[in-house]
Amino acid sequence: MRGKVKKLNLNQLARDAETPEEDKLIKYIMERGKKNLAKKIVRETLKKISEETKTPGVEIFKEAIKNTSPQVEVRSRRVGGANYQVPYEVRPERQLYLSLKWIIDSAKAKKGSPMADRLAKEIILASKGEGEAVKKRENTHKMAEANRAFAHFGWVGRNKK
Q1: Are 132 and 108 in contact (CB under 8 A)?
Q2: What is the rounded distance in angstroms from the CA atom of residue 121 to the CA atom of residue 114?
Q3: For 110, how many CA atoms within 13 A lie in the half-sphere containing its CB?
Q4: Do residues 11 and 23 make contact, with C-beta atoms less than 8 angstroms apart?
Q5: Averaged in consecutive runs of 10 residues, what is the pLDDT profile of the chain (161 residues)?
Q6: What confidence score (pLDDT) does residue 11 get?
């Protein structure tokens, strides 16, 4: 028999993280278990953001997350031998994940400067409603809007017993 599932404690943050979002950013940036390097990158990023914008880096970071979080996304669903792109609402945890993923991916795509600089620029742009991560969100919303006619397929096959 399977053991009990351990509850995830979201209140337990990394020592340097001020908010849960910042903690998640550190974890998503981390590669090959190098958490200290990820913390250093995030710390430098927030410092550069606050220097450039003259407001606390965490506030700009939260604004960027809000501007890049998708409300709906499309998932492929097979109905009657055909595949449809069905729009679904996005859960808050997934919104945060996608938002941070898009910000990090767009920062990684720009080469030539340190990661902290690229990440700071992308977060500042996202907080203003610009940048690659915001474009990605808009494209996701456009796809969901275009496939709105198939929204009723989202409930097909649910609650089967």
Answers
A1: no
A2: 11
A3: 18
A4: no
A5: 74 69 91 93 94 92 95 88 89 94 95 94 95 94 88 62 43
A6: 62
Residue 122 three-state SS: helix
Strands 72-79 and 82-89: antiparallel
- Cα distances from 84 to residues 15, 89, 91, 123, 152, in angstroms, run 45, 16, 21, 34, 11
Q: So what's the pLDDT on residue 160?
A: 46
CATH 1.10.1740.10 fits 20-155, yes or no: no
Helix, strand and coil in the chain, % to nearest 5:
60, 10, 30
Distance CA 14, CA 24 (A): 9
Within 10 A of 149 (CB to CB), how many other CB atoms are there?
10
pTM for the predicted model, two decimal places? 0.84
**Quick count: other Cβ atoms within 10 Å of Cβ 93?**
10
- Nearest alpha carbon to residue 52 among 114, 107, 117, 103: 117
HEC per residue, 31-44:
CCCCHHHHHHHHHH
Predicted confidence at residue 16, as pLDDT, reads: 63
Distance of CA 73 to the CA centre of its chain: 13
pLDDT of amino acid 7: 75
